[in-house]
Structure to design on (284 residues):
């Protein structure tokens, strides 16, 4: 009987752990929340001081900040305990996302951009985060890969490209490393931007690569924004690229090369800055 009881306890403990894992927010859920917060920060920055509706929106934003701080504290405690996972539930993350999206929608209705199209000039730079890993050792010509817009891009008085928008890239050419002297190389182009269900033709090349978006200049959303609250710990949860990009060089044509004899390895999460090679017009 004792053996049966012990087995039963183990079974229930395992079932409970499995259920908890299913209910826990995954890194991708937190990244989507971060994108929503970045877009909300950008919208809040455009509100005029003294406007009664704007003040109400800022009050609601402070409540969202408090909820975000709560998630951050739970994640940090979980991280310090050296346990696997994120430490926050999917329901908690979804609740905050709903609050953010509701506030964003109310701001858009109250202070919409008037239905004007946006135009991004040639030379405009967009900061991306790779969703897929790339390697000169395994990549092939014409391979497709995805990236997400890391920070919202503004055109005049409105957001033209929101954080989290998907960008599609293609491997135009690839060369494997040959030791001891030939470095691996990746030639990457970006040819598609997806806004909601619309696909836009894009022509852009890589101008820089880094491990941390803070090296890519100030965020359009502002480091003091709500997004920065979660961003302070999100990098550790997502798994950083620290040290992975040492020796990586970007040439004038946008080709990405490794050091002599080494492959180009770009992990998912690598920050890539691209530059438009022709203007991009976005519908209202």
């Amino acid at each position: 009987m004792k053996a049966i009881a012990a087995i039963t306890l183990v079974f229930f403990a395992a079932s409970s752990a499995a259920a908890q894992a299913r209910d826990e927010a995954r890194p991708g859920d937190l990244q989507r929340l971060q994108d929503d917060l970045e877009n909300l920060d950008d919208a809040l920055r455009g509100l005029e001081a003294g406007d009664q509706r704007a003040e109400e929106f800022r009050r609601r934003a402070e409540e969202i900040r408090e909820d975000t701080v709560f998630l951050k504290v739970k994640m940090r405690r979980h991280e310090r305990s050296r346990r696997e996972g994120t430490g926050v539930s999917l329901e908690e993350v979804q609740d905050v996302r709903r609050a953010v999206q509701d506030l964003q929608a109310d701001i858009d209705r109250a202070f919409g951009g008037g239905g004007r199209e946006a135009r991004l000039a040639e030379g405009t730079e967009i900061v991306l985060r790779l969703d897929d890993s790339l390697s000169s050792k395994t990549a092939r010509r014409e391979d497709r890969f995805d990236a997400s817009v890391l920070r919202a891009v503004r055109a005049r008085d409105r957001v033209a490209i929101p954080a989290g928008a998907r960008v599609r890239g293609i491997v135009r050419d690839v060369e494997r490393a040959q030791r001891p002297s030939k470095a691996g190389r990746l030639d990457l182009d970006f040819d598609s931007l997806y806004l909601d269900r619309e696909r836009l033709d894009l022509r852009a090349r890589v101008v820089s690569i880094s491990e941390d978006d803070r090296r890519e200049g100030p965020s359009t959303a502002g480091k003091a924004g709500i997004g920065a609250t979660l961003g302070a710990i999100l990098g550790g949860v997502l798994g950083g690229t620290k040290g992975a990009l040492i020796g990586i060089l970007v040439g004038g044509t946008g080709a990405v090369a490794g050091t002599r004899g080494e492959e180009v390895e770009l992990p998912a999460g690598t920050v890539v800055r691209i530059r438009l090679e022709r203007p991009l017009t976005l519908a209202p």
User: Anything to note?
Assistant: The chain has two domains: 2-110, 118-282. Residues 52-80 form the longest helix (29 residues).
